[in-house]
Amino acid sequence: MEQKLYNIKMRAARGGNHKKGGLHVSGAERIVNEEKIKETVDVLIERALNHSIAKADFLNISIEAIDNKEIKYIRSLPITTIKTDNFLQGRQDLIKLLVKLNLPLSTAHHLIELLVSAPPLRGAMLIDVHSLKRLENNLERGIRVTGMDWHEEINGQLSTLLDKHDLNNCHVKEAVALASKVANAPGIIAEICWSDDPHYTAGYLGSKKLGYVRFTHLKPKGLAKGGRIFCFDSRQASLEACFEWLENQIILINEVSPYLGMFPIEEYLKDCCIWK
Ligand code: WAQ
Ligand code: MG
After folding, report:
1. Would you say the pTM of this structure is higher than 0.70?
2. Is 80 exposed, middle or buried (0-12, 13-18, 19+ CB in 10 A)?
3. Helix (H, G, I), strand (E, B) or coil at 41
4. Mean pLDDT in each 10-residue stretch from start to end of the chain (276 residues)?
């Protein structure tokens, strides 16, 4: 018999509730069976209370049963790493790949500028790639993607793959799950992200076309501001369908795609063009 699953969501802030102006410290979610609820909640609480941004003094945890019929299954994006020496080079490399995804060079520059200059948000910016306007309903929060996780059955396989490349950490696991969901959203052609964890300089470009392309540096060390931008093409889908997928659709990843390797950008552009 299929096991009943639960979506556990945690958000944590410092200086009180997010809604009362508290600083966002951590947010995470899991989809687990009943037996795993307690230990999962423990791990999430631990994380909020020991975060490198700040120690949370507000914690909100919700646990909600999922109707198995509502779950859609996808496979993860394949992972590639672009080796960069510093964040400025990383951003230049990122721009080259945004152009490969058919975005105009000026748009690619604009997106990076936007991520650099935006205030810290709990969610992501959703940008119309034609008008460059922000499309989220709540501009102070951004759009939060929820309802995704790795299927319990493939956790072992995922850890083995990530271990081999020294990538078996929460940042990577959660980012690949989120990016795989986002890349499959109606109308989304690309996502860019870097972490808000001050010690974590890596970031990524996610897309159906190129997969999950990580850059070893996209942000200077010590900076506690990260962010995400989802690029939406209104000619490909309705905004409602996109919101529905990102905010409500429950997604489990039940197939692990391969790790494709680590390359300097020149080599990647020359030899590893999945888009050829
Ligand atoms: N939905 C939308 N936006 C989110 C969400 C979400 N569920 N979670 C976080 N964000 C936004 C928010 O603005 C955060 O400040 C920002 O993204 C960064 O979140 O391959 O750790 O959880 O080595 O800090 C990427 C590289 C790590 C991993 C990303 O993001 C790798 C990371 P963080
Ligand atoms: Mg973070």
Report:
1. yes
2. buried
3. helix
4. 90 92 92 97 95 91 96 98 97 97 97 96 96 97 97 97 97 97 98 95 97 97 95 98 98 98 94 58
Identity of the residue numbered 20: K
Output the pLDDT for position 276: 44
Tell which one of 228, 246, 259, 260 to mutate to probe ligand 1, the residue whose CB is within 8 A of the most ligand atoms.
228
User: How many CB atoms neighbour CB 150 within 10 A?
Assistant: 22
Q: How far is the CA of 1 from the centre of ligand 1 (A)?
A: 35
pLDDT of residue 271: 76
260 CA distance to ligand 1 centroid (A)? Answer: 22
272 with 88: CB under 8 angstroms? no
Residues with CB under 6 A from ligand 1: 27, 121-124, 144-145, 171-172, 175, 178, 193, 195-197, 200, 202-204, 214, 226-228
Of all protein residues, the one whose alpha carbon is nearest to atom 24 of ligand 1 is 195
Ligand 1 pocket mutation pick from 170, 195, 218, 219 by most atoms within 8 angstroms of CB? 195
